[in-house]
User: Which sequence fits this backbone?
């Protein structure tokens, strides 16, 4: 192998137990190679006129054989591999030439390395796992740095605890919660920071209209040191304003979340696709793999049982349906109304296509991606870009916003464009909020209701949530063995089958 060919090499595991191996040299470098070989259980011989105290101790304990003389060419015969590890470049070259003559693989530890048959990668071991790192001999210092970093990480992999750190509408109201949502640059920055942490095996971030969470598989040390709370920005929050759930409690929490039991409209189904999308994004970014896939798949499995059990107790409203119920309860006749829909994402499409079939007219506003209008709604739906939105506000007596914009897209500058002749209800389903709450003070004819407003109104209409949550937790506990199987599989180093 020469320098131009160094990156054409491959890493292989040599099974050297009981096989004859040779190290030529008796100093510090030779000692390191001797220790490396001894881990594999060979019949090891050292040829050197002199040996240091460390090598001598191995000889005295019978772990290696020592031939106290200078190297001779025939010493290489019959050996599986040879290390030329003297402090003489000329002697090492002689060893290499003798090995090549007798067709024995040889590694030189000095400047002759590029002529050798192999190099030794930087190696770290953890139980039965061995990781090797090599630069092909070109940058040994860098290889060792990478090896040391991996070694630190491997020491933290004895267990993978499931952890959830987050907050939601039950802990912070919409105004308090808004600054903590991971949108835009904050999402990217949080993901980058978590990727740099030791002890984070895998993670994903769930960011919905009513909750923001980091879901992670972490080492014991990381679980206990509070770093995820810091990244989420919860350091100055009181303990009752956020939650940190570990182990079984974290899994139970995921089951309730995926079942929609902790949503603002309990029983809704959007959360299922939101969690799946969050996991898929995490996998694409390299944040998540088999660990998170198993946790999420298992929680989705349990959530199906939860939904089947408690469905008779719920109205099963999606957020779109809830908004419609709110409008009807507050005197809006949809067949005679003009609705301005802001946003063409999942909720926006749900409104236009599924929830507003009886509405008189729909003005559908979009930012970049122009939505497709089904033929069944042709003539009822008019498309409008955000740039033209202010010119159409006066036509609407209902405005619904559900975008992922990082700030207010409807604010006080739009106040002059509101219809002054009839009451206007503005429903803000965005998080962060899309509508400036000050618009609610504009006049008695403009009402702005956000997610919290809908939640409180709905809760008054709903069956006792304590009973619903109690039943849901009972179902989750009945699947405790599923959680234990996954947790134990990570501790043993094998994923569950």
Assistant:
């Amino acid at each position: 192998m020469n320098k131009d060919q160094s990156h054409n090499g491959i890493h292989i595991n040599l099974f050297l137990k009981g096989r004859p191996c040779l190290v030529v040299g008796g100093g510090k470098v030779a000692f390191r190679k001797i220790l490396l070989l001894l881990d594999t259980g060979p019949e090891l011989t050292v040829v050197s006129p002199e040996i240091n105290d460390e090598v001598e101790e191995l000889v005295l304990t019978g772990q290696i054989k020592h031939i106290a003389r200078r190297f001779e060419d025939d010493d290489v015969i019959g050996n599986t591999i040879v290390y030329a590890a003297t402090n003489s470049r000329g002697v090492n070259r002689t060893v290499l030439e003798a090995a090549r003559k007798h067709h024995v693989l040889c590694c030189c530890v000095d400047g002759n390395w590029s002529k050798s048959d192999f190099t030794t990668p930087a190696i770290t071991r953890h139980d039965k796992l061995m990781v090797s790192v090599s630069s092909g001999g070109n940058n040994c210092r860098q290889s060792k740095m990478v090896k040391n970093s991996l070694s630190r990480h491997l020491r933290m992999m004895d267990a993978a605890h499931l952890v959830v750190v987050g907050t939601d509408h039950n802990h912070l109201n919409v105004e308090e919660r808004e600054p903590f949502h991971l949108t835009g640059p904050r999402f990217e920055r949080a993901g980058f920071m978590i990727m740099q942490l030791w002890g984070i095996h895998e993670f994903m971030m769930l960011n919905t209209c009513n909750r923001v969470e980091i879901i992670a598989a972490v080492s014991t040390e990381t679980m206990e040191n509070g770093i995820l709370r810091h990244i989420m920005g919860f350091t100055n929050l009181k303990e009752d304003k956020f939650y940190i759930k570990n182990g079984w409690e974290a899994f139970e929490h995921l089951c309730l979340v995926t079942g929609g039991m902790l949503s603002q409209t309990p029983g809704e189904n959007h959360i299922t696709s939101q969690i799946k999308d969050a996991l898929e994004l995490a996998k694409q970014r390299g944040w998540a793999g088999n660990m998170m896939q198993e946790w999420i798949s298992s929680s989705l499995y349990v959530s199906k049982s939860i939904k089947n059990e408690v469905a008779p107790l719920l109205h099963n409203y999606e957020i779109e349906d809830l908004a419609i119920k709110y409008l009807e309860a507050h005197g809006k006749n949809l067949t005679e109304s003009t609705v301005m829909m802001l946003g063409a994402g999942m909720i926006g499409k749900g409104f236009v296509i599924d929830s507003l079939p009886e509405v008189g007219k729909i003005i559908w506003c979009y930012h970049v991606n122009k939505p497709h209008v089904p033929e069944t709604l042709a003539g009822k739906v008019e498309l409008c870009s955000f740039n033209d939105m202010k010119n159409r506000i006066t036509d609407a007596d209902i405005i619904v916003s559900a975008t992922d914009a990082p700030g207010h897209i409807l604010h006080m500058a739009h106040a002059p464009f509101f219809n002054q002749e009839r009451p206007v209800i503005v429903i803000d389903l965005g998080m962060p909020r899309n509508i400036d709450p000050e618009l609610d003070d504009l006049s008695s004819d403009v009402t702005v209701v956000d997610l919290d407003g809908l939640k409180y109104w709905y809760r008054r209409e709903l069956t006792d949530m304590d009973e619903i949550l109690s039943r849901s937790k009972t179902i989750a506990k009945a699947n405790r063995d599923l959680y234990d199987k996954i947790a134990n599989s990570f501790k043993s180093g094998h994923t569950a089958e």
